[in-house]
Amino acid sequence: MKIGRLAELSGVSVRALRYYEEQGLLESERTPAGQRVYQESAVERVRFYQQLYAAGLTSRHIARLLPCIDSGHTDADQRRMLREQRDRIQAKMDELASVLRRLDELIDLTRTHP
């Protein structure tokens, strides 16, 4: 599929897809006219990258994960990085849960005091 279609299906901009290629996160083939062509599997891969970005991982982190994403195997360094990222995300979730509880308390308080 062409880059515009991949952007549409994955919910990212064409510019983001070009950036992913520059970072080595995404591969394309080229038509004789030089247009990028992607495999259908690129849609899910880009969506997964978006989730990782949303969780705070960087392009560098994602690039380090590519071998284990593709092979299902990790080395000690990758496992350490995965645990560190998981711990960071869990801490953020805990913090957000605390904020959510506080907001619920404020909502309850304002219900009783118009």
UniProtKB/TrEMBL annotation:
<dbReference type="InterPro" id="IPR009061">
    <property type="entry name" value="DNA-bd_dom_put_sf"/>
</dbReference>
<dbReference type="GO" id="GO:0003677">
    <property type="term" value="F:DNA binding"/>
</dbReference>
<dbReference type="GO" id="GO:0003700">
    <property type="term" value="F:DNA-binding transcription factor activity"/>
</dbReference>
<feature type="coiled-coil region">
    <location>
        <begin position="79"/>
        <end position="106"/>
    </location>
</feature>
<keyword id="KW-0238">DNA-binding</keyword>
<feature type="domain" description="HTH merR-type">
    <location>
        <begin position="1"/>
        <end position="68"/>
    </location>
</feature>
<dbReference type="Pfam" id="PF13411">
    <property type="entry name" value="MerR_1"/>
</dbReference>
<dbReference type="InterPro" id="IPR000551">
    <property type="entry name" value="MerR-type_HTH_dom"/>
</dbReference>
<keyword id="KW-0175">Coiled coil</keyword>
<dbReference type="InterPro" id="IPR047057">
    <property type="entry name" value="MerR_fam"/>
</dbReference>
<protein>
    <submittedName>
        <fullName>MerR family transcriptional regulator</fullName>
    </submittedName>
</protein>
